[in-house]
Amino acid sequence: MAFLFVFTTFATTIFESMKILVCISKVPDTTAKIAFSAPNTYDENGVTFIINPYDEWYALVRALELKETLGGSVTVVSVGAADYEPIIRKALAIGADDGVRIDAAESDAFAVAKEIAEYARSQSFDMILCGKETIQYNGGVVPGMIAEMLQLPYVFGASKLDVNGTNAVLEREIATGIEVFHTSLPMVVAAAKGMAEQRIPNMRGIMAARTKPLNVLPSCNAQAKTHVSKFDMPPAKSGCKMIAPEDAAQLIQLLHEEAKVI
Amino acid sequence: MKTLVLIDNHGGKATKASLEAISYAIAMNAGNVSEVTGIVFGKIEGDANTGVCGLTQLVNVSSTSDSAAIAHWVVQYLKESASTLFISSHDNTGKEVAPRVAIAWEAAMISGVTQMASVNGSYTVKKNVFSGKAISEVVTNDNKVVMTILPNSFGVKKQDGAVAIQAVEGSLSEGKVKLSEVKGNHAEGGIPLPEADIVVSGGRGMKGPEHWSPIEELAKELGAATACSRPVSDIGWRPHHEHVGQTGIAVRPNLYIAVGISGAIQHLAGVNGSKVIVVINKDPEAPFFKAADYGIVGDAFEVLPKIIDAAKAYNASK
Question: In this complex, do B135 and A233 lie within 8 Å of one another by their Cβ atoms?
């Protein structure tokens, strides 16, 4: 723990204080059109950008809840150019204490993880929270890479996270049940649905966000190990074959003989 | 290229997703299985079922631990065996272990791969992006590569193989992350959603949790898993782990049957990898029909019994 005060006057009571880092990414709104202005360039024209939902709804909100219960601070970090600052301000409006933008291109998972790990290395965070993947690249590996770079314990896809002293209890929903993990802080967590509920920033939060610190840090010049050579659209559906509701029984025959999926 | 495949051990057996990863690795080596070694941690039964996809070499480390300890053991093995490719499924185990391997082994990594890679010094490979609304072609700048394979993308290519098992006595360091228990049993008698070949899914059109029996009955007849839309899990009609969509689970079954789901773009993002989509909705304007292969405009409670009866007749004739 960053700050640990033990009062022995009473029965031993530990007042905790969590220093939490939440990694956020800028992604197109979930309803945004997907088009490309060049073979390997996403067409941002007219697109509204949001905080990646997994980062915002689950990682950030759970971090704020832990801070509210245990005391401490929540810092948000994002790797990107100046156009990432609106989403950092949004995170500050939701309740984060300060924001950090690392001034580097979001080139690949390795480079992003390296930039964040180099920043976090000097900051002694008790916990680094990320969403389980972005809805843009669907990679899901940045938090695991950060964990390895900093030699920290890591749980992917946690749907529940509680802290007790320097220990954490996490749950992960799997197809056959719920896995329960115990580990020690500091640690890295990739958050999934269930960990918290979305919070809408109120006017006071939006006003307060304007004056909260947003520090721009230089890149450590991490070099990407992969690049996107082109984007394609998935093959279009050939059209929907309609079946009259009274003939619904035919569906099974069509799925067997024509589609060959049963 | 010498290839190591991480196999997820589920009760002594390889998961279906891991068998797909083995099939992928064998195909990547142009069918030359001698280049492919599987690695599995913990106690296994027999060959952990890895022979069904033609694997011939399996390393079984008798103990298991957390992702950090497993990754460090794997990296040591990769270095000693002069391997150049590490493959796992894009499942929970792969998502924890593979990024660690990529860092410790100083390799390039591509996650969620959906197609065969072409290798020409570097690797060029395709994966889904924008939640399945586009496909990206990714190029590595290294010939030492870590890949995770998206489940239900490549399939299990069945072929005969006699597996030689190299047993290694436990030499893993104690992990800092400990799995203490697995609670509940969602899929008791049922089929885990991410591995299902057929999924039957219900939305708000089902009008309430008490009306779910036709969904469950059709799923049972088809050997399918059940799923639901986000509103249905948010209002508590069905559990969160059944929520399919952009912020829930993405599924890629052979057949996805959506009943009473309008097909919001966020839901489509979770199912657009499905090979065949059937939409049943009483609203002919439901956007889901645009993404469907077969559509029925009608009341679910009148249509589903007909389909269930036909499925029963089909099963009886098999």
Answer: yes
At residue A10 the predicted structure's pLDDT band, cuts being 50, 70 and 90, is: very low
Q: B259-281: per-residue pLDDT in tens?
A: 999 999 999 999 998 999 999 99
The answer to whether B3-168 and B193-317 have equal CATH topology is yes
Interface touch A157/B186, C-beta < 8 Å: no
> Which CATH number among 1.10.10.10, 3.40.190.10, 3.40.50.620, 3.30.70.360 corresponds to the domain B3-168?
3.40.50.620
For residues A178 and A172, is the Cβ–Cβ distance under 8 A?
A: yes
Q: Which residue of A has its CA nearest to B122?
A: A226
Give the distance from residue A213's alpha carbon to the nearest chain B alpha carbon, in angstroms.
30
Cα–Cα distance between A247 and A252 in angstroms, integer?
11
Position B54 pLDDT exceeds 70: yes
Does residue B217 surpass a pLDDT of 70? yes
The C-alpha of B254 sits at a distance from chain A's nearest C-alpha, in angstroms, of 6
- Mutating which of A150, A154, A159, A258 best tests the B interface, going by the most B Cβ atoms within 10 A? A154
In chain B, what are the domain boundaries?
A: 3-168, 193-317
Instruction: List CB contacts (< 8 A) between A111 and chain B.
Output: none
Yes or no: domain B193-317 corresponds to CATH 3.40.50.1220: yes
A141·B133 Cβ contact <8 A: no
CB A251, CB B152: distance < 8 Å: no
Global pTM reads: 0.90
- Cα angle A149-B86-B63, degrees, rounded to a multiple of 5: 80
Instruction: Enumerate the domain spans of chain A.
Output: 3-218
Q: So what CATH class is A3-218?
A: alpha beta
CA-CA-CA-CA dihedral for B251, B252, B256, B258, to nearest 10: 30
B102 phi-psi bin (left φ>0, alpha ψ -120 to 50, beta other) = alpha
Kindly indicate the confidence band of residue B188, based on its pLDDT and cuts at 50, 70 and 90: low
B100 vs A148, A190, A253: nearest CB? A148
Q: Which residues, including other chains, have CB under 8 Å from residue A114's CB and lie 6 or more apart?
A: A145, A149, A220, A222
When CB atoms are compared, the residue of B194, B291, B293 closest to A175 is: B194
B187 part of contact set with chain A, CB < 8 Å: yes
